[in-house]
């Protein structure tokens, strides 16, 4: 659970969404705080551009903090798989697990690395399929 409550922004009006889309099309994005221009690091710039693009498409958005350690439910949602498959991946050691009492916690970096390996295909995902692991 994040220390900070998520912030939800409703969809923009069609006129405002159009203005955001038009501004993003200019290709120059500058962030000003207290009258000073700041160049964002690439990761922050990409996150801001993604947020603005979603608003520009007329979508509502929710901004929340990403946790480094996930519950089984959070890991399942991030990976797009079932809770039982997450438990199987941790039981097989595909995803290292930490326990908080009897509750499993999985590091976000392990889930993201597994997802990247899955996208590479069979050679990148070798050993990551619970059905192929030796018991």
By DSSP (H or I, 4+ residues per run), the number of helices equals 5
> How are the strands of the largest sheet arranged?
5-7-6
What order do the helices and strands follow? EHEEHEEHHEEH
Quantity of strands, as a count: 7
Shape: elongated
Mean pLDDT: 83
Radius of gyration based on Cα positions:
20 Å
Spans of at least 5 consecutive residues with low confidence: 131-135
Distance between the termini: 34 Å
Q: β content, as a range? A: 15-25%
The description of the largest β-sheet is:
3 strands, antiparallel
Helix content: 40-55%
* SS-derived structural category: alpha+beta
Protein model, in words:
This protein has 135 residues and is α+β, with helices and mostly antiparallel strands. 42% of the residues lie in helices and 17% in strands. A three-stranded antiparallel β-sheet has the order 5-7-6. Strands 1-4 form a two-stranded antiparallel sheet. The protein has a two-stranded antiparallel sheet with strand order 2-3. A hairpin with a 2-residue loop joins strand 6 and strand 7.
């Amino acid at each position: 659970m994040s220390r900070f409550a998520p912030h939800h922004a409703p969809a923009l009006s069609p006129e405002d969404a159009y203005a955001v889309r038009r501004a993003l099309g200019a290709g120059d994005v500058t962030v000003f705080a207290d009258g000073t221009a700041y160049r964002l690091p690439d990761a922050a710039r990409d996150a801001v551009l993604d947020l603005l693009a979603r608003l520009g498409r007329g979508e509502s958005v929710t901004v929340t903090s990403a946790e480094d350690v996930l519950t089984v439910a959070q890991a399942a949602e991030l990976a797009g798989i079932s809770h039982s498959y997450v438990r199987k991946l941790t039981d097989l050691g595909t995803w290292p697990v930490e326990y908080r009492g009897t509750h499993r916690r999985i590091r976000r970096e392990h889930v993201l690395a597994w997802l990247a390996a899955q996208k590479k295909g069979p050679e990148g995902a070798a050993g990551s399929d619970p059905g192929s692991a030796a018991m």
